[in-house]
Design brief:
The complex is a heterodimer of chains A (257) and B (420). Helix content of chain A is 19%, strand content 16%. Chain A has a four-stranded mixed sheet. A two-stranded antiparallel sheet of chain A has the order 2-3. In chain A, strands 4-5 form a two-stranded antiparallel ribbon. Chain A has helices spanning 25-33, 83-87, 114-118, 160-172, 186-190, 208-212, 237-244; strands at 11-16, 53-58, 68-73, 93-95, 102-104, 124-126, 153-155, 196-200, 217-218, 230-233. Chain A is built from seven helices and ten strands. With 420 residues, chain B is an all-alpha fold. Chain B contains 15 helices and two strands. Chain B has helices at residues 15-42, 57-68, 70-81, 88-112, 121-124, 131-155, 164-200, 218-246, 253-288, 293-296, 305-323, 325-328, 331-358, 374-397, 404-419, and strands at residues 212-213, 216-217. In chain B, strands 1-2 form a two-stranded antiparallel ribbon. Chain B is globular. The two termini of chain B are 32 Å apart. Classes of the chains: A alpha+beta (257), B mainly alpha (420). At the A-B interface, helix 2, helix 3, strand 6 and helix 7 of A face helix 5 and helix 6 of B.
């Protein structure tokens, strides 16, 4: 893995696939943190809003050779040629160069969905319905995050509300205003197996620098040149090859390394 | 009752027949508008699009009708820039068709976005790197150009001409028409290309992604050439269709043959460039992204037949037919070739929009399918109905084919002399 593309102040997420049990806690935590409303009764798995989506992948073998894993898929926060940024006709998507976070501005989006067609990771979601919360549930809304209206696109922003809260707290404590504040997105906090690690490369304590340099680290569709800031870890060679679209191995063997 | 509005020397059906014809299309328009209303008021949940199939029937048809509407700019190019004056016989009709195609496409696009009232944001916060920005700017400007080009045709109506201000205005507009046509050609070149570029730049969709020159992928140029190729064919087809329905001779047959021949040459060039582009894409572009082209044609019903149909059956074959003098001068073959050519370009737009989204990009994803909802179909039918209504009114009350009067009076005279 080459981490030189990322500035040291930019945030990186590392997901250990071998630790993920597919429990979906990250999805729930994400939805609650970011004010994603309960799904409309008519919504399907293709019309719902799930900033964090956990998909099941398997080795494609039958019988004893078959293996399966869960792959949590948030926005990959592409660092290069960010597909959604270049296509948006009205600059409703921007990359914060200091943090590396790709922002969607729902208040400027007019819902053309060109960014969704451009995203190879299918990490962007359209609000097909007005967001609605059952009576009383509005009380649980996160005041740091604005709910989105019908007809606009939204996606994971590494819990931007938490990032701002962390910056504000750092400023209050008298620390110089820095982009490189430590905080934890809701998915990482909720994961019962601690499969999600988050931080900046400059923050050695976070451990992300070491993790992305490990031999088991990989990214999804690296050949597209989008340099995602979300990395995955797995000792299973087949899953790395599947994600990278390298040639399939004759067997689904495990390679420790 | 409305005979005073019908251009002098032209014969039109009775007002009763015309009203009955219009009634059918008005009912269809009403049905379609109801579907569009539901999409606007209830939201795009009325469609069968989703987070993965983000574009559907509407975008496919928008791209197709805009290609068909290219007849307006290309006939303008032939007439005003290349000074092929014989095409003045069809320019008015081509302008009306262009206006219908573009205004219809823009109307559907307005329904296709989640927040139509924010459409002006593109002009306020434009992203110069986005192909969609280029499309939005060019189409909007070109629609204005088409509306201005339509104005003198409208003001030449018998009754409107009686108003001196309109007469003067129309006369003055005529003087600037060549300039407007040139602006229209420039704008058309860019938006036809940008529509191709929309998909060609999507590196995250290796099926659609193409290499190119500078900032423009090869699809930019292919869309321009293909639109130029079928624009004349579509003008020819509509002229023949209107001639059949109205039972009038509208233009001299040579004009239709010329349109067919021009279409044939450009279509042949398109087939050549498309073939080269496909070979580069299969052998270099797609494999460099680790996507084997065989995967694309291994999915459900989208086999290699679609590539063969697009390039050979609906590309090379009609091109050869249109370039063969004997076939071209036979109306049946001419029309068949025109339909095949238009079908080929429609298939190309289908492949670029629908097939691109149906194919999986993530290695663990499956092939997707999509069937439009009745609201999507109805909205499109509203555009068809609107087009027929506008064209019918224009044909009845305006002079769309300047040769019609002479051709039919000659026919009448011949008929009378035979009877005598």
């Amino acid at each position: 893995m080459n981490s030189s593309e990322h500035l040291t102040s930019q945030y990186v997420m590392v997901i250990d696939v071998d630790r993920c049990t597919g429990c979906g806690a990250c999805m729930i935590a994400c939805a609650i943190e970011n004010n994603v409303s309960p799904a409309h009764p008519d919504a399907t798995d293709r019309t719902g809003v799930t900033w964090m989506r956990v998909v099941k992948v398997d080795s494609g073998k039958n019988g004893n050779g078959q293996q399966a894993r869960f792959l949590p898929l948030p926005c990959q926060q592409c660092a290069a040629q960010t597909p959604c940024v270049t296509v948006c006709p009205q600059n409703a998507v921007e990359v914060d160069e200091s943090t590396g976070i790709v922002f969607q501005m729902p208040q400027r989006c007019f819902g053309c969905r060109y960014c969704m067609a451009a995203c190879p990771y299918h990490a962007r979601y359209f609000n097909w319905w007005d967001p609605e919360w059952p009576e009383g549930m509005e009380q649980t809304l996160n005041p740091d995050v604005a709910p989105r209206m019908r007809g606009v696109v939204e996606k994971c922003n590494f819990c931007h509300g938490r990032y701002h809260a962390a910056r504000a707290a750092a400023a209050e404590e008298g620390h110089p205003t820095s982009d490189n504040v430590r905080y934890e997105p809701a998915c990482a906090q909720a994961c019962p197996t601690q499969a999600i690690t988050f931080g900046t490369l400059a923050d050695e304590e976070s451990g992300v620098g070491e993790l992305i340099r490990s031999a088991t680290a990989f990214r999804i569709l690296p050949k597209l040149g989008t340099e995602p800031r979300v990395y995955y870890l797995s000792e299973l060679k087949w899953i790395r090859q599947l994600a990278e679209r390298e040639k399939e191995l004759p067997t689904g063997e495990e390679v420790h390394g | 009752m409305d005979s005073k509005l019908i251009p002098r020397g032209l014969e039109r059906t009775t007002l009763r027949n015309f009203s009955l014809w219009m009634l059918f299309w008005v009912i269809l328009l009403g049905f379609g508008l109801y579907g569009a209303y539901l999409c606007l008021v209830e939201g795009l949940n009325q469609t069968n699009m989703d987070n993965r199939f983000v574009f559907g029937l509407w975008i496919f048809l928008d791209l197709t009708v805009i290609a068909f509407g290219a007849g307006a700019f290309f006939t303008g190019l032939l007439l005003y820039v290349l000074k092929r004056h014989e095409f003045s016989a069809v320019i008015n009709s081509a302008v009306v068709i262009g206006l219908i195609c573009y205004s219809g496409a823009v109307a559907v696009l307005a329904i296709d976005v989640g927040q139509p009232l924010r459409a002006w944001f593109t002009f306020w916060h434009p992203n110069a790197h986005s192909m969609l920005t280029e499309v939005t700017f060019c189409i909007t400007c070109y629609l204005v150009v088409l509306a201005i080009e339509y104005t003198p045709i409208l003001l030449k109506n018998r009754k409107l001409k009686e108003i001196p201000t309109f007469l003067v205005f129309q006369h003055e507009l005529h003087k600037v028409l060549p300039i407007l046509a040139a602006i229209g050609i420039f704008l058309s070149f860019f938006h036809q290309g940008s529509l191709g570029g929309l998909y060609g730049v999507l590196k995250g969709r290796p099926f659609a992604f193409r290499e190119g020159f500078g900032i423009w992928p090869s699809t930019f140029f292919l869309f321009v050439i293909s639109a130029a190729a079928i624009g004349p064919s579509f003008v020819m087809l509509t002229t023949v269709l209107v001639s059949k329905i109205s039972r009038k001779k509208l233009v001299k047959p040579e004009i239709l043959h010329s349109l067919g021949r021009i279409s044939g040459w450009i279509l042949m060039a398109y087939v050549l460039f498309k073939s080269i582009d496909t070979l580069v894409w299969i052998n270099r572009t797609s494999p460099s992204l680790l996507f084997s082209p065989y995967e694309y044609y291994n999915q459900e019903s989208f086999g290699t037949w679609i590539l063969f149909a697009e390039i050979v059956l609906l590309g090379l074959v009609p091109a050869l037919m249109l370039l063969t003098k004997k076939l071209r001068e036979h109306q049946g073959w001419l029309v068949t070739a025109g339909i095949l050519a238009c079908g080929g370009i429609a298939l190309n737009r289908f492949v670029m929009t629908i097939q691109t989204l149906a194919l999986p990009t993530l290695p663990f994803d499956a092939f997707l399918s999509y069937v439009p909802s009745w609201q999507e179909v109805a909205t499109f039918l509203a555009v068809v109905a609107y087009g027929v209504l506008l064209y019918s009114v224009s044909f009845r009350y305006l002079t769309l084919f300047p040769q019609e009067r002479d051709l039919n009076s000659l026919a009448r005279e011949r008929h009378v002399s035979v009877r005598l």
